[in-house]
Amino acid sequence: MNILILGSGGREHAFAWKLAQSPLCDSLFVAPGNAGTAQVATNLPIGYNDFEGITEAIRRHRIDLLLVGPEEPLVKGVVNYLRSQPDLGALRIVGPDRQGAQLEGSKDFSKQFMVKYGIPTAASQTFTADTLTEGLAYLDAHSLPVVLKADGLAAGKGVVIANTAQEAQDTLRDMLTAQKFGEAGNKVVIEQFLRGIELSVFVLTDGVNYKILPEAKDYKRIGEDDTGPNTGGMGAVSPVKFADRKFLQKVEEKVVKPTLAGLQQEGIRYQGFIFVGLMNVKDEPYVIEYNARMGDPETEVVLPRIQNDLVELLTATADGELDKVALQVSPQTAVTTVVVSGGYPDAYEKSKVITELDKLEQVIAFHAGTAPGPNGHVLTNGGRVLALTALTNSLENAVRKSQEAARTVQFDGKYYRKDIGLDLIRYQD
């Protein structure tokens, strides 16, 4: 089978790493990929939003299976575009069409969906520039802290938790009138702040059948002890100790099943991953958000724990036969520490030489933002540069090995959080 992955981050390197292990994988391509994917696949110099270029590559390389990594091409309708090509009817695609991707592409759509199908979530209301006055009045009467979310895609940074009324009102104005998040902020969802412990549950569905993949907890803020601005993710852990079997059964019954039933009711044939961002509030699950794809860096701790042949899983998903596959999950713990460029998530420099990669032991180095450089060097090419994953028999060992790897790799301006997983160790104690 010839396989193409769209994307260039750590998630896509993790997918490539896992797919390359399958005897069913003949040729593996990544568009556009990074220095890490180049080690296990052939990178194609095609942007993941270049639908014409992607289509031509599928034809040229006789691609049998397409896996869409990032949210943007899904929301923009890459699946719809490919399905409209008469000669690509046999192409297997893992990823929802434009309608299904609205679960992530519009916070307002997803909130309305949750309310309609009885899925537990925080109370909320949506406002636009035309209803700014009403929004300010709504905030004035709202309890604090309060959460403001840009409706559209904002690269994981369109969420603000405001602790004062002034901050909340300034944020709403910034989003709706100053276009802080561009078109993504044309609508703003204001919602109740939920107190609890955050985690993510991942579902792979063929439209009818589903598998619940290993859960994970990620660390979004740049600073230790969860301080500073949100990022795309500074690290992740799987499994999550506070998500016991009883809680995960509640997630399945109260969230997963009604979500899939709602999609079917809406006439959406959803074939791909659903990322469910959850808050555990006194042992009850509440949905914070949906993503229409796997998370990053959660993929880098979820995939190493899946023992199945990933090509088999994805083929069953595209063929509507996921019920014929038994999911096998390792009981080991995976921890990833993300090493980022200095200045991230704000302005940062690229093209810094990365050294000591050859010194890494007992970890998987997933490349998140890298590019091949001259003389065989690997260069930084993004805010998040590497996701260093350890898979061991204990949380403590996985934390230690992942952190050792983060200390070992070197590049100018390197930064990483030194507290990834420590809260879960304390939770165990």
TrEMBL record:
The cross-references to InterPro entries, in alphabetical order and at most eight, read:
ATP-grasp, ATP_grasp_subdomain_1, PreATP-grasp_dom_sf, PRibGlycinamid_synth_ATP-grasp, PRibGlycinamide_synth, PRibGlycinamide_synth_C-dom, PRibGlycinamide_synth_C_sf, PRibGlycinamide_synth_N
Where is each ATP-grasp domain found? 111-319
| Signal sequence residues | none
Q: In which pathway does it act?
A: Purine metabolism; IMP biosynthesis via de novo pathway; N(1)-(5-phospho-D-ribosyl)glycinamide from 5-phospho-alpha-D-ribose 1-diphosphate: step 2/2
Q: State one molecular function term (GO).
A: ligase activity
Sorted alphabetically, which keywords does the UniProt record give?
ATP-binding, Ligase, Nucleotide-binding, Purine biosynthesis
Recorded catalytic activity of this chain's protein: 5-phospho-beta-D-ribosylamine + glycine + ATP = N(1)-(5-phospho-beta-D-ribosyl)glycinamide + ADP + phosphate + H(+)
Family assignment from sequence similarity? Belongs to the GARS family.
Q: What is the protein name stated in its UniProt record?
A: Phosphoribosylamine--glycine ligase
